[in-house]
Amino acid sequence: MGKIITDKLFKAREGDLLFYPCNDMMIVRTISGFTSETLKQSPKYENCRQTANEFGRLSKQCKYFRLALTGILPKENNWAVANALTKKMREVLNCDTINERGERQLEKALASEDGRKQMTGYEFNPDVQTFIEHTLHEDSIQLNSKSINFPKGVNVVGFRLHRLAFDFDANANALTSTDWIIKNKADLMDVVVIDLPLQPDNSAILFTLLETQFYVYEKAGYQQLEDGSKSVRVVVVEKHGL
Length: 242
Prior knowledge:
- There is one protein chain.
- This protein has 242 residues and is of the alpha+beta class.
- The protein has two domains: 2-33, no CATH class; 40-240, no CATH class.
- The protein is 24% helix and 33% strand.
- The chain is built from five helices and 13 strands.
- It has helices at residues 36-41, 46-68, 78-93, 106-111, 113-119; strands at 2-4, 13-14, 17-22, 25-30, 134-136, 140-144, 156-167, 172-177, 181-184, 191-195, 204-218, 221-224, 231-240.
- The longest helix has 23 residues, at 46-68.
- The N and C termini lie far apart (55 Å).
């Protein structure tokens, strides 16, 4: 590519050269000959086709995954939530060591120990930095309330647990949730124990999620903080019925 400083007008195309104006200059470059058919058929772009194939399938799966968590995931900054999840799932996809590049599957990746480890602890809200220390038991979770970082002026916190069984092959899901557990900051014990919801009856990858929401209690009642402080974190990922 080259630059020409001139007042002379050129045709948009001369032979194998392409001309176009930019900042009072003419830019000239050779025509690549690249077409959509080249992308589809040329061996040179095989890696591009493989990446596009996987990314298209993965993006669709992430969309259905987010829809399964409607009413749970933060509503604000939705694009950031969606993009962060897609980016994370692309990293997890590398854990499918069974299928060839271009045919790798999230189901296989998350069935592996490495894939499940990568998703464990994942925070769906990119704006949240808080991590609540916890211990997972067979039928309950124990939260260390001393590790909770309350935003300024906040005096109430709420917790809810979810179990999502997601079939990435069929984009089908089953979800069970607990009721909200609301605790005043002044009365909060050092340890909060929450029973896990029942396991969904579905053969899929099982995600256990902890949802944390902050409130301000006033005479008018509980005022929920904006979604920027809301945490939805993966506690554990398990193979369920696979």
